[in-house]
């Protein structure tokens, strides 16, 4: 039988991990099609001609790309349980704001650490990433309302947006011998990260840090 | 009486124009607080500490920034009429995809024409902008379903996302002696642009092209 939901992805991609978590939260069965960086499939090229990037979700033969747009789509289509976006319009807007901050500011800074020229520049970028996590710690305190996740009792949009990057955050910590999430700066996020990774919707799709480190080495070559 | 809705903006900003159109569509009365580039207000700095940018919408003393996030918020809060996002989840995701394309790819290219070094580079950028408009012409044909707007009969998310830039598109055309929207490449968008600018929600808030040209000269100085 032809699968109704297909996901074109690759296991190390934090953006793909986000979509997998959203699908897991909604108990949606899907076929995972692993793409290879070095030779993109015809299906990927025709499903996302603009960016030619994963993830692509194909639902009833209709393709969608951009991870946060897919996550919102999953929430819209499988709306009967486990809401991902907050129900209050203001809370929803705030979740979108910080998710965009993570994608447009915080993650590009973390990613640029690897290619930084000189120790001073690297230090500056690391401080900037930590400062961003400090902001996201404050957002957590405001939005979790004493519960375990950004979304309160349940995983939500911001948990998925930030949590998808936890594997690469750990790789960055190890590669640079620093703590980005630490007791001093982000005590709540330290506990949140552990809860997040142990969550049923997350634990089987969060890439293993050791494997990511091996993968990062192949990227360097 | 204190106004329930305030908008911190500036008349030449395409991002502010988007929010004004959305508020007009919903017949929301608001107080418009004109910000000055050279000295940002205390209210702006404290309402949007992360980016310190307009537009900021303040609704019942709670601030929001990022134009497309505000537009979605306006649609969520004043939901009883004139829907801005499509009701179908897939159509909604597609509208979000192309709105993000406009903000992340198309507009940055158009904006960079002004500072381009050399005629060849300028030509290349102009061709890229036209190619993007060609794509948006195809999207229009698919989503308008023979009606006047991206959203069908009524203005929608994509009309607002692209339409907000029409003033600056014309300035770019005049400054460079080119047609970006033209009968050959984008016949449907040529007609759409005229309809859009004549729409009741748009015509009083779309900046005048002549005034924008004068404003652009002050930016150069």
Structure explained in plain terms:
Chains A, B: This is glutathione transferase. Chains A, B: InterPro entries: Glutathione-S-Trfase_C-like (IPR010987), Glutathione-S-Trfase_C_sf (IPR036282), Glutathione_S-Trfase (IPR040079), Glutathione_S-Trfase_N (IPR004045), GST_C (IPR004046), GST_C_Tau (IPR045074), Omega/Tau-like (IPR045073), Thioredoxin-like_sf (IPR036249). Chains A, B: Residues 3-82 form the GST N-terminal domain. Chains A, B: Keywords: Detoxification, Transferase. 2 copies of one chain form a homodimer. Chain A is of the alpha+beta class. Chain A has 9 helices and 4 strands, in the order E-H-E-H-E-E-H-H-H-H-H-H-H. Chain A has 2 domains: 5-77, Glutaredoxin (3-Layer(aba) Sandwich); 89-220, Glutathione S-transferase Yfyf (Class Pi), Chain A, domain 2. Helices cover 55% and strands 8% of the residues of chain A. In chain A, strands 2-1-3-4 form a 4-stranded mixed β-sheet, covered by helices on one side. In chain A, helix 1 packs parallel to helix 3, helix 4 (89-112) packs antiparallel against helix 5 (119-144) and helix 7 (166-176) packs across helix 9 (209-220). Chain A is globular, with a radius of gyration of 17 Å.
């Amino acid at each position: 039988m032809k699968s109704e939901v297909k996901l074109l992805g690759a296991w190390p991609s934090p953006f793909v991990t986000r979509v997998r978590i959203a699908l897991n939260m909604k108990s949606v069965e899907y076929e995972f099609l692993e793409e290879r960086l070095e030779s993109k499939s015809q299906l990927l090229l025709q499903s996302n001609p603009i960016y030619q990037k994963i993830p692509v979700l194909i639902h009833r033969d209709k393709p969608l790309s951009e991870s946060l747009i897919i996550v919102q789509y999953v929430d819209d289509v499988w709306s009967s349980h486990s809401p991902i976006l907050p129900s209050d319009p203001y809370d929803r807007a705030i979740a979108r704001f910080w998710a965009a901050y993570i994608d447009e500011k915080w993650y590009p800074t973390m990613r640029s650490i690897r290619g930084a020229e000189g120790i001073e520049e690297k230090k500056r970028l690391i401080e900037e990433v930590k400062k961003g996590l400090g902001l996201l710690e404050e957002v957590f305190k405001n939005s979790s309302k004493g519960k375990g996740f950004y979304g309160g009792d349940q995983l939500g949009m911001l948990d998925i947006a930030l949590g998808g990057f936890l594997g690469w955050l750990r790789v960055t910590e190890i590669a640079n011998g620093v703590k980005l999430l630490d007791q001093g700066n982000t005590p709540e996020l330290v506990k949140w990260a552990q809860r997040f990774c142990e969550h049923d919707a997350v634990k089987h799709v969060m890439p293993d840090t050791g494997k990511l480190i091996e993968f990062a080495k192949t990227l360097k070559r």
